[in-house]
Amino acid sequence: MIKTFVRSSCSTWLMAAFLAFFGEITMARSLILTPPEALAGQWRMYPEGANPQVCELELLLQSPRLSGDLACIAGWLGERPANWEPTPDGLWLYGAEGTGIVHFNRQKADRYEVRLKNGKVLVLVRDMP
């Protein structure tokens, strides 16, 4: 009985050490910050659903950081975006004052989504050349 207790205690300790070490590596790899250069370019934003209105957006590396149909986008967000930055799990759009307007969550490569307060899902996708 004591051997079983010692064996299970050692197994538990080894499993905990294994998960602690490899769990950190896995988490670190899953949240890698995408460099701004990889996201710069032409994008489209639209609400999910049938026949959506599509707004063009360009993510730029130099000021002004955003261009495109910003008035169209402001209609959905309630504020005109002026800046952007990547995050490990998505992309932030900021207003002229530097406050965060909305955070898009990365769904897959070149597709980001956010659920707005009104329940609609707003989609941001890269234009393919």
TrEMBL record:
Keywords from the UniProt entry: Metalloenzyme inhibitor, Metalloprotease inhibitor, Periplasm, Protease inhibitor, Signal
Keyword Signal: yes
Protein's cellular compartments: Periplasm
UniProt key word RNA-binding: no
UniProt-listed SUPFAM superfamilies: beta-Barrel protease inhibitors
Any Pfam family matching the protein: Inh
Gene Ontology molecular-function annotations: metalloendopeptidase inhibitor activity
GO cellular component terms, A-Z: periplasmic space
Domain of life: Bacteria
Residue ranges of domain Alkaline proteinase inhibitor/ Outer membrane lipoprotein Omp19 in the record: 36-126
Protein family per UniProt: Belongs to the protease inhibitor I38 family.
Name the UniProt record assigns to this protein: Alkaline proteinase inhibitor
Protein's organism: Pseudomonas batumici
